[in-house]
Amino acid sequence: MSRRRVVITGMGMISPLGIGVQESWHAAIAGTSGVGKITQWDASAYPVQIAAEVKGFNPEQWIEPKEIKKMDRFIQFGLAAAQMAIDDSGFRIAPENAERVGVCVGAGMGGLGSIEAYHSILVEKGHRRVSPFFIPMVIINLAAGNISIRFGAKGPNVSPVTACATGTHSIGEAFRWIERGDCDMVIAGGVESTITPLGIAGFASMKALSTRNDAPEKASRPFDKNRDGFVMGEGAGILIVESLESALARDAKVYAEISGFGMSGDAYHMSAPAPLGEGAARCMKLSLQDAGIAPDSVQYINAHGTSTPFGDELETAAVKTVFGEHAYRLCVSSTKSMTGHLLGAAGGVEAIFAVLSTVNDVVPPTMNIEEPDPECDLDYVPNTARQLEVQYALSNSFGFGGTNASLLFKKYR
Predict the structure, then answer these.
(1) What stretch(es) of the chain map to CATH 3.40.47.10?
(2) What SS3 string covers the chain?
(3) Distance (Å) of CA 338 to CA 34, 70, 173, 306, 307
(4) Residues near 296 by Cβ (< 8 Å), separated by ≥ 6?
(5) Which of 33, 239, 319, 397 could join 347 in a cystine, given CB atoms 3.0 to 4.6 angstroms apart?
(6) What is 261-411's CATH superfamily?
(7) What is the pLDDT of residue 413?
(8) Rounded to an integer, what distance in angstroms lies between the CA atom of residue 55 and that of residue 33?
(9) Which positions are annotated as active-site residues?
């Protein structure tokens, strides 16, 4: 059976750089930092006091007030970004097509803020004060569930949970569903909101987070010699993934084509990448093989690039393994230098940035590269966006547990 061509026809984003795709994209191209002091709670006693928070989000703009109290912030982000994406696509879900529309939206950790809040209520006031909406507020698949309910999508309804690779796996899974003919359109991506006392404390205890509290906007510095950990972010990136046949039939605008998807497992360590980035390299190779293209066809990689000492070095090694000498001709940038690390939402947001690089022929920079790391010697588009004709853009996401995902986007012609 021949594979169906799959395209992106709509996009929605809530990010530390702005509310909406264009606001976030323009901020990224300008090199704007979304990182600052934590404002959602008092972090002054914590070793990490900075994060990339979403600013100015009003859930009442997207959700009925009586429904808001039933949803953790990560679900609210997901509904808002899904509404943006559907509106952008011009697709209307109706009884005659509802069973051909799926939802594939995941998160890495789910409703951690609500878990913390209701645990305090339980301890201080007793079990009768725990809301009957508590469980639906916090479980990860209620992001996809609420999107399905809100828009009437009756096809597959799934929530991948693969840590920091969640958003990329979600879009890749949607791609496969449409290739196989299971759906004609899928609302796909990732969501996350875990800038909470327990979330920050847990990652800080692992020594995974930057402690550059005195200069928040400089804290996320992928591939820089003095990087000291990632900065936690939050938000949502949702894409409308659609068969080309469906898009053409309704005369939809097409942003880009998904041409390849790769997955792999490190089978090595619960949080550290495999030596030489072996699992990441296999993942990228599989995406190229899936697309049927040579490595030198790719112009841009939106790197996982978290700003951790080992992660950035090993991703660089993996890129060299896959692309050989062409690795030095590629542009490789990490938008996490501006957005922070959105965990389960990272893959969705970064997929949108990769798609827009093919649309606009410009690649966003890696900010805060001040002293290059000798082990990270590729072209990371330091500190300034660059005009570049992008035919193929690769987006990487690697998660705890050794789970890896790569998506390959192609300029649509």
Answers:
(1) 6-249, 261-411
(2) CCCCCEEEEEEEEEECCEECHHHHHHHHHCCCCCCEECCCCCCCCCCCCEEECCCCCCHHHCCCHHHHCCCCHHHHHHHHHHHHHHHHHCCCCCCCCHHHEEEEEEECCCCHHHHHHHHHHHHHHCHHHCCCCHHHHHCCHHHHHHHHHHHCCCCCEECCCCHHHHHHHHHHHHHHHHHHCCCCEEEEEEEECCCCHHHHHHHHHCCCECCCCCCHHHCCCCCECCCCCECEECEEEEEEEEEHHHHHHCCCCCCEEEEEEEEEECCCCCCCCCHHHHHHHHHHHHHHHHHCCCHHHCCEEECCCCCCHHHHHHHHHHHHHHHHHHHHCCEEECCHHHHCECHHHHHHHHHHHHHHHHHHCEECCECCCCCECCCCCCCCCECCCEECCCCEEEEEEEECCCEEEEEEEEECC
(3) 6, 31, 27, 11, 11
(4) 323, 326, 329
(5) 397
(6) Thiolase/Chalcone synthase (3.40.47.10)
(7) 87
(8) 12
(9) 164, 304, 341
| C-alpha span between 401 and 265 (Å, rounded) | 8
pLDDT in tens, 382-399: 999 999 999 999 999 999
Contact 380, 223 (CB under 8 A): yes
Structure tokens at 18: 């702005």
Per-residue pLDDT at 1: 54
Weakly modelled stretches of the chain, pLDDT under 50: none
